[in-house]
Design goal:
about 140 residues, mainly alpha
Length: about 140
């Protein structure tokens, strides 16, 4: 299941960057007021589509970091052997960080999400400076 999710999230991030850049090009160079308004609405829905998975992955990472401390501070002193061996097992596995990767390339987190949005705006600035769509 993990490789399928990894690939699909990589494709989603790549498509999001491409869609953001193309939509911003359309808004800045070709759109009138009504089409720009519709494009901004589309842009917002595209951005909000990828945000929940990044937000959830960040919260899972934070919860996993807190798990080993919660296990350590539990009432394990004087507990029976089965309980302490299970705690040791969980504590050992909780020390290895969980990393969600998209396509094995992009970490799935809010930092990557904001980098994708920044990349689209950087591409627009680059195109604007090169005067590619100079309509005069």
């Amino acid at each position: 299941m993990r490789p399928i999710i990894s690939r699909s999230l990589f494709v989603q991030f790549t498509a999001m960057g491409f869609v953001l850049a193309c939509t911003l090009i359309h808004i800045l160079f070709f759109a009138n007021f009504l089409t720009a308004l519709a494009a901004i609405w589309y842009l917002a829905t595209c951005v909000l589509q990828s945000f929940p998975i990044c937000f959830t992955c960040d919260h899972i990472l934070a919860d996993c970091e807190k798990l080993s401390m919660a296990i350590f501070h539990s009432n394990w002193i004087g507990a029976d052997h089965r309980y302490t061996s299970a705690l040791r097992h969980f504590m050992h596995n909780a020390q290895q960080p969980i990393r969600f990767m998209g396509g094995g390339v992009l970490p799935i987190c809010q930092a990557t999400y904001s980098q994708m949005v920044k990349m689209a705006f950087s591409l627009i600035t680059f195109i604007n400076q090169m005067n590619i769509f100079d309509l005069d």
